[in-house]
Design a protein that fits this description.
Length: 418
């Protein structure tokens, strides 16, 4: 089959689709991926055809308007207005990619809103792939944009319906505006979150671990929890400096805030350095796309831009990060005690799930991060009690294979099975 993946977002959004695409290619499918600039190298390494969406997410996230959107309502409104033109360009590119590829099947991130419309255009299935729990109404847990802790059964259910309604309204308005500007005929209005399948309901793939958040028992059978699409452990040669650091003392912790640009580097850096001084811990720090400001290396501190999590995480004693879906899964996959310092979106929800699972202390919002709070959290994370719980999570997730499960479902379709 010719399969089009639409992966829009930062590294945590794109990497699972690359892993899925690689597995599908190994199974004999012709795989194309629509993703932003900056991901060509991992996509090429996976042997996939990259159709570039004209947007650099790293540069976008470092724009003042986008940083303001993470901390205030007025910032969100300003960023929304600024994003209108950007989204029109993205939608036009996404639509043209679909017309060029003419796929037999589409798998799309929910931000790839033209996925089901392209499916309708060609009469082929378009399945949504959800990397976070929160897009299927349930009484089991709240929608992460409204709450992190349970609101009770009815409250949880209501929170999903509220956010789903807001998302449908926003998506339909965005598409209507784009259609008006470009004159593109995309067909009837569709529910982006429902996917598309000719003559039947499309399955909705939940690509996150049942060990972290299982599907609610009240969900319908179109919801398929396939598990997280973990990459194979990376073949990586560390720099001599990193290798020396790892071998020169007690096992270090990892600290990194991934693709999220820091709002207050002085606070984050001060809290980190102060917490390390208080606890006597050593750390490997990844500055990422700006989540952590520049730090001077020291005897207890090794600073780098990035390092494959699959290589480093088995070699540390705990992980401190922002709580994105990908990093949370990767840390727990390797049985690591986890300290989450969330910024927005799904990150506080995953922070609370880590607490509920016993695999780490209460999350510390980045705007409340201090040396004392981080030191206490690290001391808690490194207790035998937490280490045991985190280790058990790692054992449970060891055989999880979301990419393989998705490949199996697609093979069923390819041979005509339901």
């Amino acid at each position: 089959m010719k399969i089009l993946l639409i992966a829009i977002g930062t590294r945590g959004d794109v990497q699972p689709f690359v892993v899925i695409g690689s597995r599908l290619r190994t199974a004999g499918h012709d795989v194309h991926i629509a993703a932003a600039e900056g991901f060509s190298e991992p996509i090429a390494v996976a042997g996939l055809t990259h159709h570039v969406l004209p947007l650099d997410f790293q540069n976008l996230l470092n724009e003042p308007d986008m940083q303001a959107a993470m901390t205030s309502l007025s910032g969100k409104l300003k960023a929304y207005r600024a994003a209108i033109g950007i989204m029109n360009v993205q939608l036009s590119a996404m639509w043209q990619i679909g017309l060029d590829v003419v796929p037999d099947l589409i798998l799309y991130h929910f931000k790839g809103v033209l996925g089901p419309y392209l499916g309708h255009r060609f009469g082929v299935p378009a399945w949504p792939v959800m990397l976070q729990p929160g897009f299927a109404p349930t009484r089991a847990y709240p929608q992460f944009l409204l709450a992190q802790r349970s609101l009770g059964g009815l409250g949880n259910l209501a929170s999903h319906h509220i956010i789903n309604a807001v998302m449908r309204f926003g998506t339909n308005r965005m598409l209507k505006r784009w259609v008006k500007v470009t004159g593109t005929d995309i067909g009837p209005v569709l529910d982006v979150m429902a996917g598309y399948a000719p003559g039947r309901r499309a399955p909705r793939l939940h690509a996150y671990s049942r060990h972290i958040v299982p599907l609610g028992s009240d969900m319908s059978n179109v919801e398929r929890q396939v598990g997280y699409a973990f990459a194979e452990p990376a073949t990586f040669t560390p720099s001599p400096a990193l290798e020396r650091f790892l071998l020169s003392g007690e096992t270090p912790i990892y600290v990194g805030f991934g693709s999220m640009p820091g709002i207050d580097h002085a606070r984050v850096n001060g809290a980190l350095l102060g917490a390390l001084q208080q606890t006597g811990l050593r750390a490997v720090v990844a500055t990422g796309w700006g989540g952590i400001g520049q730090l001077a290396p020291a005897s207890h501190l090794h600073v780098l831009d990035a390092v494959p999590h699959t290589w480093l995480f088995p070699r540390v004693s705990a992980v401190v990060h922002h709580g994105g879906a990908g990093t949370t899964h990767e840390g727990l996959r390797w049985g690591q005690p986890t300290v989450i310092c969330p910024l927005f979106a799904d990150q506080p929800f995953f922070g609370q799930r880590v607490v509920d699972l016993g695999a780490g202390p209460a999350p510390i919002a980045q705007k409340r991060l201090t040396a004392d709070r981080l030191a206490r959290a690290l001391e808690d994370a490194l207790t035998d009690r937490v280490a045991k719980k985190a280790g058990a999570m790692g054992q449970a997730m060891k055989t999880e294979d979301g990419a393989g499960a998705i490949t199996g479902l697609i093979d069923q379709i390819a041979i005509g099975a339901n």
